Amino acid sequence: MLIDSHVHVWRPHPDFAQAGATIVSPHSPIPVELLDAYLDEHGLSRAVLVQPIYPGEDNSYVADCARARPDRYAAVCVVDPRQSDAAERLAYWVGERGCRGLRLRPRIAAESAIFSSPEIYPIWEKAAELRIVMSVMGGPEHLATLKSLARRYASVPIVVDHLGLPTAPEGAASPDATALCELVDCGNVSVKLSGYYYYSRDSFPFADCHAMFRAVLERFGPSRVLWGSDFPHALLKLPYARALRVPELAFPQLNSADREQILGGNARRLYWR
């Protein structure tokens, strides 16, 4: 079973002030039906719908899409951790609307400071209570804090989005790769192989990132690495079929069992428990 662990869908938001906020504009609709077509064409069974940066905390579309087809989609919501009732909002999106994960985004400037503050503890405690997956979109500067949080909340499964968004693909011995691999001691942390085109200087198959990819696989093992396409943003960088081939080309030594874990089994275990 092939599962894309990182996709975005949304209704258009023509009034969103920053038309160029991401690679694909929020002014353009990205309906779940379009994602369905890509998954069907390339033989994928499921996908994890990650709430995009917009429209804020209105997770209705991803939640409704996942609830309509729970064997096809799982939803990861967003809740602003700066709000005093953040934990209660999370409980609503999980308990009432069926979301299976929460995404924290310290890479966004407005949400960076609270990530390292005790004020964020209640939302982690609620995530532990609800038994959901915590996704983290942070940079190398947030990994030390994440390590502390992972140890404090060892029962919460954590997925690091986009390999921790390194500043550049400087190899397995780079400070960014080293900081990411230090999380291996936290058994509840997995790493998402996605978003590599944000920092790669090469085109497909992003060979300048392979040393870091392999370091992550070697340290974390195939049971703690997930592949995600970052649909639809990735489509402006490479065809979907090529995104699906990146693990195969980066890890030519993979056997079929390891490949199955990275391309589906790990996501199924985390989001379809």
Topology:
Elements: E1 3-7, H1 32-41, E2 46-50, H2 60-68, E3 73-77, H3 86-95, E4 101-104, H4 109-115, H5 121-130, E5 133-136, H6 143-152, E6 158-160, H7 175-181, E7 189-193, H8 210-220, E8 225-227, H9 240-250, H10 256-271
Parallel strand pairs: 1-2, 2-3, 3-4, 4-5, 5-6, 6-7, 7-8
Helix pairs in contact: 3-5
Question: Could you characterize the architecture of this molecule?
Answer:
This protein is α/β, with parallel strands linked by helices and 273 residues long. It has one domain: TIM Barrel. The chain is 37% helix and 12% strand. It has an eight-stranded parallel β-sheet with strand order 1-2-3-4-5-6-7-8, sandwiched between helices. Helix 3 runs parallel beside helix 5. The longest helix is centred in the last third of the chain and has 16 residues. It is globular, with a radius of gyration of 17 Å.
